Amino acid sequence: MACDVLVIGAGITGIYQLHRAREAGFDVQLLEAGNGVGGTWYWNRYPGARFDSESYTYAYLFSPELFAEWEWQEHFAEQPETERYLNHVVDRFDLRRHIRFGEKVTSAEWDEASATWTVRTAGGAEHRARFVVAATGIFSVPYFPDVPGREDFRGESFHTASWPTTPVAFDGKRVAVIGTGSSGVQLIPAIAGQVESLTVYQRTPNWCTPLNNGPITAAEQAQLRADFEVMQATLNTSSHGFLHQPHDRATFDDSRDERWAFYEKMWNSPGFTKLTSNYTDLLLDPAANAEWCAFIAEKIRGIVDDPATAEQLIPRDHRFGEKRPPFVTGYYEAYNNPNVSLVDLQRTPIVRLTEDGIETADGVGRRFDIVVWATGFDFGTGALLRMGIRGRDGLALTDHWADGPRTFLGVQTAGFPNLFFPGGPHAAAGNNPRYNGDQVDFVTDALTYARDHGCDTIGATAEAEERWTAMVDKGAAMAPSFGECSYYFGTNIPGKPRKYLLNSGGRPKLFKEIARVLDTDYAAFTLSRSG
Ligand code: NA7
């Protein structure tokens, strides 16, 4: 198959890219490894998987008609609703006939003479395209820790990020969940009531706070539609892509009673507000952060009946926001269920999996019917580095990025002309679809610019790549005093270069640099005509 633009991945970014590039008049095809659309929202279909950005702020905003006709059921939609929505979008904009499912890309090689990419898939198909847009996402390669005996376990094993499309029967089963990141803490309360026993293997507790989800009432639905343009404008100018407004006070401007009353308000407010609308110094002043953490610890002790379990659930090694904070529904409460127990892996690490269970360092072997790995992702670069990408002069992306990703705007890397990767590393640090949408809009403009100028090659210069990468590295982390202790830096994967994978400059930096590209007539790119 040959086309102008080959998009890889039918997640929220790839679907939008397919739509935008078609709208701009390109001949576009999309390859998707799965058998359905949704990307992250296709693969992560474990019970309890849901948004923790508000549904209507996470969804597409490019079409007022689409916004008006889709009524989200909940403020934070569960995975099935999101998957239905993305299928609706694909059909509504007549995109399905351009998507080939079950096509996992195994190599992509640039040919300078013809200015085209040759893309091969696991099934042996070969595709040629002038431009490739790898919309392969940052949460797309599940990570399994190298635990001895993992293959020996004879019961059922699942990873939250490659969950089967057929329902898993949890009823009456002895279940182990390994991992307490955002996925684990969503899954645990969702299955606690069904299983015979649930044993949670926790290496590091997280600062979990309530999601405060609820159905969207008829009056709220009407208000959302009436306010669409205002909401769109707010989201499009918000530095992190949320509707939440920042607070105007610092922690110690208030007395302790005032602080606790404010924290109570935060505790009861939706999702990410605890990060975006908290005291202005939450991420800047360790003492301010400690105050909010003390409040959360008090809440955990108040919710969890068993004092020893409560203490084990309180983080001691990182601040709020230093790792991605999960937002939960009934998580701490689940530990009051007599069939739910916690194993603290800092005290008793896993030694091995056996045929019928998990053995820990205290010599205890527990038997299970099901083991769930909620152990996260090879975040940011995982998918791009597994696609066999080779650019100019055969340069492998794995070599170019051996010390961590190098990008311009988080969409291109020097030496790999006509390859774009919106929704990849170095772009976002907030409500992802808003950043990814900005990037797709930019990619579409760049493709159009190249075409309109009779050019068939467009590639970011090494200087532009250096400038953006230096900005990302310099601004690394959300806060100066934070350590490099999270997947944001790749530290969850043994041997992965320790480099910041997000963009803490947020959308303002993205907008500023895009404006500069446009003002300078694409000076950050080299454009040329082949032949
Ligand atoms: P995360 O947030 O990376 O969480 C992975 C969890 O797995 C975390 O609790 C890890 O503990 C744990 N883990 C990893 N390796 C091990 C080993 N070897 N033994 C025990 N436990 C382990 O991934 P999620 O899927 O929960 O969430 C990813 C993002 O998806 C989320 O932030 C949202 O943005 C959407 P650790 O903390 O490393 O000690």
Explain the overall architecture.
The chain is built from 17 helices and 20 strands. It has 531 residues and is an alpha/beta fold. The strands form 5 sheets. Strands 1, 2, 3, 4, 5, 6, 17 and 18 form an 8-stranded mixed β-sheet that branches. The chain has a 5-stranded parallel β-sheet with strand order 7-16-8-9-12, with helices on one face. Helix 1 packs parallel to helix 15 (432-452). The longest helix has 21 residues, at 432-452. The mean pLDDT is 97. Ligand NA7 is lined by residues 139, 145, 160, 178-184, 201, 203-204, 324, 345, 374-377, 487, 492.
Care to give the gist of this entry?
The protein contains 17 helices and 20 strands.
Task: Describe this protein with a few key phrases.
binds ligand NA7; 20 strands; alpha/beta; about 525 residues; globular
What gap, in angstroms, lies between the N and C termini? Answer: 22 Å
Number of helices: 17
Q: Quote the beta fraction.
A: 15-25%
Biggest sheet: strands, sense, closure?
Answer: 8 strands, mixed
Mean model confidence by pLDDT: 97
Helix content: 25-40%
Structural class: alpha/beta
Query: How many strands?
Result: 20
Shape: globular
Uncertain residue segments: none
Which kinds of small molecule does this entry bind, naming each only once? ligand NA7
Radius of gyration, whole Å = 23 Å
